[in-house]
Design a protein that fits this description.
45% of the residues lie in helices and 14% in strands. With 117 residues, the protein is of the alpha+beta class. It folds into two domains: 76 residues, Translation Initiation Factor Eif1; 34 residues. A hairpin with a 2-residue loop joins strand 1 and strand 2.
């Protein structure tokens, strides 16, 4: 089990050791890696996805991770490294296409099984 810290405020922040699977999945989810640190930032709306991802990759239940709320002023501008809505949409569409390909493969495998029974 590797140490992972999930903080929830205006964004979801994950401090975790480097893992190539997590890096790729976090990037696909639209997360941004903070320069010079091991902290990933995600949209608050992706909290459940982030927790599941951490659980799958780092091997423990992150639902019990303490939540730290960091208040922000409404007038604060987002940081420059935030993924644009256009890029996030493109990332999600790529992910959807991959999932649809996987569903098609599963469907084909199931059809092959039903022919043999």
């Amino acid at each position: 089990m590797q140490s992972v810290i999930i903080s929830v405020g205006a964004e979801v922040e994950v401090e975790a050791p480097y893992n190539p699977r997590f890096h790729d999945a976090a990037d696909e989810l639209g997360g941004t890696l903070t320069p010079d640190s091991d902290v990933w930032r995600f949209a608050r709306s992706d909290e459940d996805h982030v927790r599941r991802l951490c659980s799958e990759i780092f091997g423990h239940d992150t639902s019990a991770t303490p939540t730290r709320v960091q208040p922000r002023e409404v007038t604060e501008l987002p940081e420059a490294e935030t993924v644009s809505a256009h890029q996030r949409r493109a990332n999600l569409l790529d992910r959807l296409n991959s999932l649809l390909d996987e569903v098609a493969d599963v469907h084909t495998a199931l059809q092959g099984l039903t022919k043999h029974t």
